[in-house]
Write a structure and sequence with these properties.
The complex is a heterodimer of chains A (592) and B (355). Chain A has 592 residues and is mostly helical. Chain A is built from 27 helices and no strands. The radius of gyration of chain A is 26 Å and the shape is globular. Chain B has 355 residues and is of the alpha+beta class. Chain B has two domains: 2-244, Rossmann fold (3-Layer(aba) Sandwich); 252-353, RNA polymerase II/Efflux pump adaptor protein, barrel-sandwich hybrid domain (OB fold (Dihydrolipoamide Acetyltransferase, E2P)). The chains are: A mainly alpha (592), B alpha+beta (355). Chain A: This is ABC transporter, permease.
Chain lengths: 592, 355
C-alpha cells in the first residue's frame, strides 16, 4: 500500500497510459513478430538465411539503402545552404521563407507525389508542353525511372531536412561569428570553424530523420519508379496482403529495422532535447571518436599557419569589395528551392479548376466540375468523413495521453527519461513499414483489424509521439521556478498545474493536437495494411486513384489537401495570437 | 563576545531551527550537519560562494527538497516532511518567478486566492500593496512590461501580501545593476522594519549581507563556517576563508615576518589585518607619536590602483605583499610604483585567524 502511494506521487506514472497503448498496439506484437521471424520456440535463423539466399531480395535491400542514402545526401546538399540562407535573411523574409517550407511539409505526401505524376507523366505537364512546342514527337520517358524517384523523394523529404537545420541554426549565437571575425577569421573560415561545427546537431538529426523515413517509405518510389526501383517496404507490404506465412515477412521487416537501428545508434538521435542541450552534447562527443583524424587535421592546420600568418599581415586593414554577387547567387538559389518545393502543389490546385474532360495544364477553361464530382461521389465523401472522424478521435486521444506522458518525462530523472524517451519515440524513429507490420499483427490479435477503433489505435502510436515531442519541447522552455513560486503561495499540485503550467504550455499542446490530426489524416502506409476491406480513408482512396490514373476528381481532392496547410498555419497562428491577446485581456480585466 | 551571538537579551522565541540537517545528492553532501536557530523577526543572511550549499539550505527551508537526515522545526513543529504548499511562507525567487501570463494584480492576488481570501478583500489588499511598493498604476501590466526594479518590487509585494510569518529571499538583488541594488536594499530594509517578518536571505554578495542582516551565516562546502553579526564577522573573522570572503584581508603567511600583537587576541595560527587599517607614509619621514602602540615596517609600492574615492596599493615587504587602502583626502601623499613607503598599524588591529 505504501509503495503504491509512493508510486502515485511519482510523475513517471503519468506516462503509463501512453505506454500501455504503445505496448499493446506496437510493443507486444513487435516481440511476437521477432519470435516468429526466429521460428520460436525452435529458434533458427532460417528465415533470415532464406532472405539473404535470394539474390533478388539482397538486390532490393541494397537498392533500398542506396536510394535512402542518395536521397539523404541530396537533401543535405540542397537543404543546408537553404537553411543557412533562410537564417541569415532579414526577419520578415525569414518568416515568409519558413512558412513556405512549412506548407509543403504540412501537405499530404500523397498529394505531392500525385503532383509529380501529373508533371512527369507521359501525358503530363512537361511532355505536353514539349509536344505542343514541337520539340519532341513522342513523350520522353520522364517517369517510372530512378531520376523520377529521386525528384519525388527529395521533394517530400527536403522540408524534413531543412526544419531541424533551421531550429539548430537559429539557436547559434551570431556574436560567435562576429567574435571569430574579430580574431581575423574571414567569412568562410568563420563559417567553417565556428558555424558549421555548431550546426552539426541539425545536420545529424535532419539526416537521420530523412534516412529513416526513406527506409520505410514506399508510396513515392512505387508511384514514380519503374519495376527496377522497388524498395524493400514495397516488397514487405505486398507480402502481408498475399502470404499467410508471416515469418519471412517479419524477417525482412527486422532486417530493415536493424539497418535503421544501426544507423541511429552510430549517429545517435536526440529529438527530445532542446537545441542548446543537443549542441552541447555533440560538442562533448565530437573530438574523441577519430583521434587519428583529429591529429591529421591539426597537422594540416599547422601547415597552413605560416601561410595564414603571411596573408593576415598582407590583408590587414585592406578594404574588401562588397559581396553583392554572393547575395544574388543566394537569392536565386533560395528562389529555385522554393519553386521546387511549392510548384507541384500549385499545379495541382490550378489543374483542379480545369473545365476540360480530362486533366490538362494549363487549364483551357475554368470550372468547379471536379469539386462537384468530389462532393457528389459518396465513395469520396464517405472516405473524407471517415478520415475526419478518425483524425479528430486520434487528435483528442493522443493529445491527452501525450501531454500526460510529456509532463511525466519532464519531471523524471534524466537517466530514466532518456531510456523511456527512446521507447516512446519508436513509432517515428522506426521505418514506417515496420511499424505498419507490427500494428497489423497487434490489431489482428486484438480483433480490431479493419475497424475504426483499430485505425484510431494504429494512428495514435505515431500521434502520441509527435504530441510528446512538441509538448516536451514546450516544457523545456517552461520555467519550473514558476511552479515552485506557486507552491510557496500554498497552491496544491493540481492547482499549480491548472493555474500556472497548463496556461503557459497550452500553445504547445494545441500544436501537438494539430500535428496529431495531420499525422492521422495523411497516414497511408500503416492504414493500407490495417484497414481491411471496409474502412476507406481519403488517403487510401487517393492512393488507389493515383495507381489507376482514371479519376480526375483526385485533382480536386489534392487541391483541397494542398490548401489545408494554410488552414493549419492559420490555426497555429491564431492559437499563438489568442494566447497573447488573452493575456492582455486578463490583465485589462479588473480583478473580480 | 555578546555581539557575535543572537540578540538573546530581547528574549524573542526561536522560530526556525535546523537540527543537524544534511542533504545528500548521490554521494555529495550539499549541506552537511547544519544546526542553527533563527529568532522571530530576525534578518538572517546565509552568505557563501557558489556551491557552498546556501541555496540548498534555503530550498530545505522552503520545502522544495527534503533533508536526508536531521530535522527542521518552524515554531517548534517539524516540517521536514511538509510539502512547500502546506507551509506559510513568502519567497522572493532569484529572477523573481513572476507568472508571465498573469497581470501584476493577478500575480499579487494569487497567494491570497490560494489561502481562500474573499475577492473583495483581495482587491483592497492588492491595491494597498501596490501603493506600498510604488506601483499604483502598474497593476494591469504584464510582468515583461516592467523594468527589472519594478519586477523586483512586485516579487517582494507578492511574497509579503499574504502576511506569512517567514520571508525568504533567494539572491534577491543579483539581477539588478548597482544603482538599483542600493535602492532595493533600502526597500528591503524598510519592508523588514515595517512588517517585522523573520527573514532569511541567501546571497553571495558580501555587501548585501553586511548592510541588510542582523546576523550572517558564512557557509563553505556545505558547512557553517561562522555565525555572527555583520560587525562581528567583519571585525573578528574566525578563519582565513571568512576574512577573505567578507572584504579584503592581508594574511601574513611568511614566517620570516614577525608580527607584534596584543596578547589579548583570540588564538589562531595566522595573523591578519584589514587593508584599511594600515597607514602609508613617506619612508624617510618621522615616525608617529603613538609608536609604542604601532608596528611599523618599510616596503616598496609594486602597484597603485586608482578607484575613485580611494587608492589601493600593493606594497611588498620581503616575500609578502600587503594590500593597503587609502581614502583620498586633500593634502595626502600619493605614491607610485617603486616608491619606498613606511607602513604602520595599531597592534590592536591585528587579528588571528585559523587557516
Amino acid at each position: 500500500m505504501k509503495t503504491l502511494q509512493k508510486l502515485g506521487r511519482r510523475p513517471i506514472v503519468l506516462t503509463a497510459p501512453a505506454f500501455v497503448l504503445l505496448i499493446a498496439v506496437l510493443g507486444i506484437p513487435m516481440v511476437q513478430l521477432l519470435l516468429t521471424s526466429l521460428n520460436a520456440p525452435a529458434f533458427s535463423l532460417s528465415n533470415y538465411q532464406g532472405f539473404f539466399e535470394q539474390t533478388s531480395n539482397v538486390r532490393v535491400l541494397f537498392q533500398t539503402v542506396k536510394i535512402s542514402v542518395v536521397t539523404t545526401a541530396i537533401c543535405l546538399i540542397i537543404g543546408y545552404p537553404t537553411a543557412y540562407l533562410i537564417v541569415s535573411a532579414s526577419k520578415h523574409v525569414r518568416i515568409a521563407l519558413i512558412v513556405l517550407v512549412l506548407i509543403p511539409w504540412l501537405t499530404s505526401g500523397l498529394v505531392r507525389t500525385y503532383a509529380w505524376v501529373v508533371i512527369l507523366g507521359d501525358h503530363g505537364l512537361i511532355n505536353n508542353l514539349l509536344l505542343n512546342l514541337g520539340l519532341i514527337s513522342s513523350p520522353v520517358p520522364l517517369i517510372y525511372n530512378r531520376l523520377a524517384v529521386y525528384i519525388g523523394m527529395v521533394h517530400i523529404m527536403l522540408p524534413m531536412m531543412i526544419l531541424p537545420l533551421l531550429s539548430v541554426m537559429q539557436g547559434i549565437d551570431t556574436s560567435l561569428l562576429a567574435a571569430a571575425r574579430s580574431m581575423g577569421a574571414g567569412p568562410f573560415l568563420a563559417f567553417w570553424r565556428v558555424f558549421l561545427p555548431l550546426s552539426l546537431p541539425g545536420i545529424r538529426s535532419g539526416s537521420l530523420l530523412v534516412f529513416v523515413v526513406c527506409l520505410g517509405f514506399y508510396v513515392t518510389p512505387q508511384a514514380l519508379g519503374g519495376l527496377g526501383d522497388a524498395m524493400l517496404s514495397t516488397f514487405i507490404a505486398s507480402q502481408v496482403a498475399s502470404s499467410f506465412n508471416l515469418a519471412p515477412t517479419a524477417a525482412a521487416a527486422f532486417i530493415l529495422l536493424g539497418i535503421a537501428l544501426v544507423v541511429l545508434s552510430i549517429f545517435g538521435l536526440d529529438v527530445s532535447g532542446s537545441q542548446g542541450r543537443a549542441a552541447r552534447a555533440t560538442r562533448k562527443s565530437l573530438p574523441s571518436p577519430l583521434p587519428s583524424f583529429a591529429a591529421l587535421t591539426r597537422f594540416l592546420k599547422d601547415l597552413a599557419a605560416p601561410y595564414r600568418a603571411k596573408r593576415w599581415t598582407a590583408q590587414l586593414y585592406s578594404a574588401r569589395g562588397d559581396s553583392r554577387l554572393s547575395s544574388i547567387v543566394g537569392a536565386v538559389f533560395v528562389t529555385l528551392v522554393m519553386a521546387y518545393l511549392l510548384f507541384p502543389g500549385l499545379i495541382v490546385v490550378m489543374m483542379s479548376f480545369s473545365g476540360g474532360p480530362a486533366l490538362e495544364f494549363p487549364p483551357s477553361s475554368l470550372s468547379l466540375k471536379w469539386y462537384r464530382a468530389f462532393l457528389g461521389d459518396p465513395s469520396w465523401t464517405g472516405a473524407f468523413w471517415n478520415s475526419i472522424q478518425i483524425a479528430v478521435t486520434v487528435a483528442i486521444l493522443s493529445t491527452i495521453l501525450g501531454t500526460l506522458a510529456a509532463y511525466g518525462f519532464n519531471r523524471t530523472s534524466r537517466r530514466v527519461r532518456s531510456v523511456l524517451t527512446m521507447a516512446i519515440l519508436a513509432p517515428i524513429t522506426f521505418p514506417a513499414i515496420v511499424v505498419g507490420i507490427a500494428t497489423y499483427f497487434g490489431l489482428l490479435k486484438l480483433g480490431l483489424l479493419g475497424t475504426r477503433s483499430g485505425l484510431v489505435l494504429a494512428h495514435s502510436t505515431g500521434a502520441i509521439t509527435s504530441v510528446v515531442v512538441i509538448v516536451l519541447a514546450t516544457l523545456a522552455n517552461f520555467d519550473q521556478r514558476l511552479e515552485r513560486a506557486a507552491q510557496s503561495m500554498r497552491a496544491a499540485p493540481i492547482q499549480v498545474f491548472m493555474r500556472v503550467t497548463l496556461p503557459l504550455i497550452l500553445p504547445g499542446i494545441i500544436g501537438g493536437a494539430v500535428f496529431a490530426f495531420i499525422g492521422s489524416f495523411d497516414e497511408v502506409i500503416i492504414t493500407s495494411l490495417v484497414s481491411g476491406f471496409d474502412m476507406q480513408t481519403l488517403p487510401l482512396k487517393m492512393l488507389e486513384n493515383i495507381r489507376q490514373e482514371i479519376d480526375p476528381t483526385i485533382a480536386a481532392v489534392g487541391s483541397l489537401l494542398t490548401l489545408m496547410p494554410l488552414l493549419w498555419l492559420m490555426i497555429l497562428y491564431a492559437t499563438w495570437w489568442w494566447s497573447k491577446s488573452r493575456l492582455q485581456q486578463l490583465s485589462a480585466k479588473p480583478p473580480a | 563576545m555578546a555581539r557575535d551571538e543572537a540578540p538573546k537579551e530581547k528574549h524573542v522565541p526561536v522560530q526556525i531551527e535546523f537540527c543537524g540537517v544534511t542533504k545528500m545528492y548521490g554521494a555529495v553532501a550539499a549541506v552537511r550537519d547544519v544546526s542553527l536557530t533563527v529568532s522571530r523577526g530576525e534578518f538572517l543572511t546565509i552568505l557563501g560562494p557558489s556551491g557552498s550549499g546556501k541555496t540548498t539550505a534555503l530550498m530545505l527551508l522552503a520545502g522544495f527538497v527534503a533533508p536526508s537526515s536531521g530535522d527542521i522545526l518552524i515554531d517548534g513543529k517539524s516540517v521536514a516532511a511538509v510539502p512547500s504548499y502546506r507551509r506559510d511562507q513568502g519567497i522572493v525567487f532569484q529572477s523573481y518567478a513572476l507568472f508571465p501570463h498573469l497581470s501584476v494584480r493577478r500575480n499579487l492576488e494569487f497567494p491570497l486566492e490560494m489561502r481562500g481570501v474573499a475577492a473583495a478583500d483581495r482587491a483592497g489588499r492588492v491595491t494597498r500593496f501596490l501603493d506600498r511598493v510604488h506601483l499604483t498604476d502598474f497593476g494591469d501590466r504584464l510582468p515583461w512590461q516592467l523594468s527589472g526594479g519594478q519586477q523586483q518590487r512586485v516579487a517582494l509585494a507578492r511574497a509579503l501580501i499574504a502576511d506569512p510569518p517567514v520571508f525568504l529571499l533567494d539572491e534577491p538583488l543579483g539581477a539588478l545593476d548597482r544603482h538599483l541594488r542600493e535602492q532595493m536594499q533600502d526597500e528591503i530594509r524598510s519592508l523588514h522594519k515595517e512588517f517585522g517578518k523573520t527573514t532569511i536571505c541567501v546571497t553571495h554578495d558580501q555587501e548585501e549581507a553586511l548592510t541588510l542582516s542582523d546576523r550572517i551565516i558564512v557557509m563553505r562546502s556545505g558547512r557553517i563556517e561562522q555565525i555572527g553579526t555583520p560587525e562581528g564577522l567583519y571585525d573578528r573573522p574566525a578563519t582565513a576563508f571568512v576574512a577573505n570572503f567578507l572584504g579584503e584581508a592581508n594574511i601574513f603567511e611568511d614566517p620570516a615576518f614577525k608580527i607584534e600583537a596584543d596578547a589579548t587576541q583570540p588564538s589562531g595560527t595566522l595573523a591578519m589585518i584589514r587593508p584599511e587599517r594600515i597607514r602609508l607614509a613617506v619612508a624617510t619621514g618621522p615616525g608617529r607619536a603613538d609608536t609604542d602602540q604601532r608596528q611599523s615596517v618599510i616596503g616598496t609600492v609594486t602597484k597603485m590602483i586608482y578607484a575613485g574615492p580611494l587608492r589601493k596599493y600593493h606594497v611588498s615587504i620581503g616575500k609578502s605583499v600587503l594590500i593597503v587602502r587609502q581614502h583620498v583626502a586633500s593634502g595626502q601623499e600619493i605614491f607610485d610604483r617603486g616608491d619606498e613607503v613606511r607602513l604602520d598599524w595599531l597592534r590592536s588591529d591585528v587579528r588571528f585567524v585559523s587557516a
